[in-house]
Structures are given as structure tokens and as C-alpha cells.
């Protein structure tokens, strides 16, 4: 196969639109509902409730805003309403997914809480229930958990739910990446006490931005609608008895989302085909794809990722912002593959760097399955350190171009480029 750079850049995951989004956006203009009220918001919320099987979905300005209010809501249930000027989690620890986007955990800090990071497992690349058990032994006072489903793959929600129930802890479920994925036939986003989805530009469907908070409680949904619109009380004037936020979804954004929702299943089918094509294409390489529970779960395959076998890894050394690697015949590393596909005008991405290794969170506790509760002393590869599963996946894994507009021919090119990284060094 002759390899040449793609004429048009191949993205990791870019918006895929269908035209009917514009119809609903136009409707917002025509009816002049150009604010955070309107038919598109109501309809988008209704469609998401039907899809996910929850009673309420509240449209908000982003997934991050939804996480912030979800965490505040859970904190209020546990610890009561904070005094104005104070976070709802001050002096409290919260267990959080470690290998995830930082938007999952930042709202804990917004509310003055302290995230305790729980290590990752190899089966689904999500929170490890074994490490979570250890964490409850070490920190029995913790009553809240924030979990994400990475790259669209459901985590071990059943085990995690049981552990949390036994310890009386509430779950905030970050399904921002996993909209449409199921576990035991149920949609992600409804396993937690409160759930969150996102419509950011690179997610499986998009409003260009936006998010929703999911809950079966009408009372909680009303509260979130109120908090997200500056907490106005029912009075003839602007009466404020609780702290408010300006987090409600715009009716224009909701129009785009309304036009995208009917295409969710089609996007998932395209992403699944991409995943399966990579899996088949790489079957003779010393790599595996991001795994999932093939009996109990159906991911949405948002991003296809690969993990290089330990003994096929060339030497790669990562600093805080820089990286070095050695070219070794027969071996490769994420940096070499990402650099090489970039030379061909395609976009991949490293795995989310675990939160316990982020400079802003490095002093926070980190709990692994052996309960050691310590972060590595620095960012460089510490050969012999085995219990930090998240860092191992970060070291050896990467996200492949997963755009649902990628053609089979283009994907075959990517597969060929990756193969050659293990045997020779094209365009070096
Ligand atoms: C995208 C994302 C978010 C945040 O959603 P926004 O709508 O971008 O604010 C939160 N958590 C995870 C895991 C995400 O991937």
C-alpha cells in the first residue's frame, strides 16, 4: 500500500451534522425564543428522557455545569445547604475516577471538596471496584463518589453500586462520553443517584456545546432548573433565598441537539464499525483494543483506543510537558504512533493522563487495589511500579482517529501506518 498524507485532516472525533438541526435553530429564530426558554429545550429534554429511560433531563450550558450542579445537589443531600460564600463540600473527601477528563473531578474542587482518586481496572478502563473497597476501608467517612465511563465504555456499575450502597454513599455518574451505551440493557446516566451527559463538539452527538442533568426525582429536577437560572423564588420581584447560577441551556443550542438526537444510534453504529475494523486490522500486532464487558455491556464506541503489549513497547520517557522515545525495530510506543499518524495529517490523542499525576491534584490521595494510596514521586517512568494501572494504560495506550466520517479506505491507511511503526519507520 502506498502511503501519502491525507488531503483533508482526519480528526479524532468531529461533529457530524445532518441538516435538520438548522430547521430547529430556524424555528427558534422564527418564534423569537432566543433565550434559555423555548420549545427546543423542552423537546430535547423529552427526547433524552425517552432514549435514556429517566424521568427528568434538565438542559444546561455544558456537561461541566451539569456535573457542578449534580455534585452540589448530592452534597446538599448529604451535608445540608452550605452558607453563602462556602462550598457545599468544604472539609469533605469525595472518591473520584482517576483516569478521566478533568471536567469529571474539577467540580469537587469548585465546591471546596477534596477528590480522592481511585485507580483504574484493565477490564473496562474505568474505576476499579477492588480499589474502591480499599478506599472505603481507608476513608469510611466518605459518602460521595463521582464515576465516569471512559471513551463510551460502561464501567463496572453493578459492583460499584453495591459497594456504595453498603457504605451509604451517593453516586454522581458522568456519562458525558457514553451517551447511548448500555449495561445490563440499561442506558448509562441512570445508574447513579444523579447523572450527567454532554453535547460538547467532539462527543457522539453535539449541540456545539451543552449538557444535561438526569434524575428520576421531580423535586431534584425542579431544584436544578431553579439553581441554573439564578435561583429566583416565586415572588413578584427578584427574590433570592439560595445561591444561583447561570447554567441553563440556550434554545438555539437545544435546537441543534434536537436535530442530532435522532441520529445517535446511527453514529453509534458507525463508531462500532470503526472499532471492529481496527480490532480486525490489528489482530496480528502486539496490541489490544480498549476492552469492554462483551456480555453485560454495549459501549457507544465513542473513541477507539489501543494498548501496546508491555513487551512490544519501545522505550518512552514522559516529562511534565515533553517526551522522548527510542525507535526500536519490532516495537513501538504511543508517542511514535501519534507522531507518525500526525505526519500523515491524522489526529490521535494520548489516553487521559490520570488525575493523581496532574500537578493540580498530585498531593491528593490515590488508592490502588493494594491500597497503597500513594502517587508516583514524579512523572517519569518508574520501572517496576506495577500497581498504578491508570499510569500503565496512559504509558502504553492511545486514542486512534475515530471520526464517524472516516471512510474504510482512510481507516485502512491508518491501520497500515500503525503496522509500519512496529516494523520500520516511514517518513522519518
Ligand atoms: C466532555 C466531558 C465532560 C465535560 O463536558 P462539557 O460539555 O465539555 O463541559 C465531562 N466529563 C467527561 C468524561 C467528558 O469527556
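-> sequence recovered:
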Amino acid at each position: 500500500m502506498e502511503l501519502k498524507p491525507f488531503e483533508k485532516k482526519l480528526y479524532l472525533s468531529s461533529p457530524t451534522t445532518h441538516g435538520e438541526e438548522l430547521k430547529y435553530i430556524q424555528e427558534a429564530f422564527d418564534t423569537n425564543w432566543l433565550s434559555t426558554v423555548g420549545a427546543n429545550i423542552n423537546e430535547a429534554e423529552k427526547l433524552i428522557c425517552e432514549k435514556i429511560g429517566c424521568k427528568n433531563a434538565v438542559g444546561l450550558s455544558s456537561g461541566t455545569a451539569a456535573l457542578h450542579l449534580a455534585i452540589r445537589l448530592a452534597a446538599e443531600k448529604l451535608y445540608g445547604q452550605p452558607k453563602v460564600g462556602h462550598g457545599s463540600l468544604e472539609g469533605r473527601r469525595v472518591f473520584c475516577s482517576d483516569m478521566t477528563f478533568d471536567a469529571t473531578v474539577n467540580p469537587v474542587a469548585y465546591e471546596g471538596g477534596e477528590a480522592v482518586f481511585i485507580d483504574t481496572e484493565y477490564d473496562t478502563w474505568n474505576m476499579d471496584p477492588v480499589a474502591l473497597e480499599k478506599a472505603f476501608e481507608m476513608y469510611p467517612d466518605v459518602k460521595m463518589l463521582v464515576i465516569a465511563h471512559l471513551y463510551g465504555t460502561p464501567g463496572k456499575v453493578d459492583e460499584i453500586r453495591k459497594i456504595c450502597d453498603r457504605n451509604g454513599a451517593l453516586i454522581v455518574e458522568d456519562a458525558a462520553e457514553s451517551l447511548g451505551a448500555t449495561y445490563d440493557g440499561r442506558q448509562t446516566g441512570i445508574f447513579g443517584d444523579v447523572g450527567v451527559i454532554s453535547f460538547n463538539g467532539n462527543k457522539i452527538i453535539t449541540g456545539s456545546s451543552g449538557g444535561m442533568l438526569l434524575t428520576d426525582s421531580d423535586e431534584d429536577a425542579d431544584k436544578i432548573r431553579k439553581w441554573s437560572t439564578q435561583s429566583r423564588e416565586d415572588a413578584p420581584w427578584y427574590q433570592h433565598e439560595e445561591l444561583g447560577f447561570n447554567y441553563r441551556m440556550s434554545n438555539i443550542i437545544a435546537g441543534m441537539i434536537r436535530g442530532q438526537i435522532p441520529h445517535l444510534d446511527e453514529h453509534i453504529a458507525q463508531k462500532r464499525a470503526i472499532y471492529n475494523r481496527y480490532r480486525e486490522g490489528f489482530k496480528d500486532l502486539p496490541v489490544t483494543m480498549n476492552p469492554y464487558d462483551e456480555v453485560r455491556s454495549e459501549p457507544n464506541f465513542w473513541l477507539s483506543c489501543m494498548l501496546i503489549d508491555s513487551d512490544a513497547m519501545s522505550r518512552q520517557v514522559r516529562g511534565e510537558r515533553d517526551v522522548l522515545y527510542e525507535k526500536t525495530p519490532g516495537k513501538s510506543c504511543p508517542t511514535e504512533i501519534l507522531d507518525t499518524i500526525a505526519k500523515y495529517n491524522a489526529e490521535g490523542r494520548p489516553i487521559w493522563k490520570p488525575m493523581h499525576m496532574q500537578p493540580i491534584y498530585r498531593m491528593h490521595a490515590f488508592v490502588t487495589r493494594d491500597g497503597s494510596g500513594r502517587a508516583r514521586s514524579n512523572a517519569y517512568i518508574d520501572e517496576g511500579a506495577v500497581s498504578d494501572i491508570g499510569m500503565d494504560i496512559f504509558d502504553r495506550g492511545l486514542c486512534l482517529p475515530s471520526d464517524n466520517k472516516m471512510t474504510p479506505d482512510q481507516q485502512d491507511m491508518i491501520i497500515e501506518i500503525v503496522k509500519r511503526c512496529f516494523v520500520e519507520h516511514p517518513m522519518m
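The CA atoms of residues 196 and 213 lie 5 Å apart.
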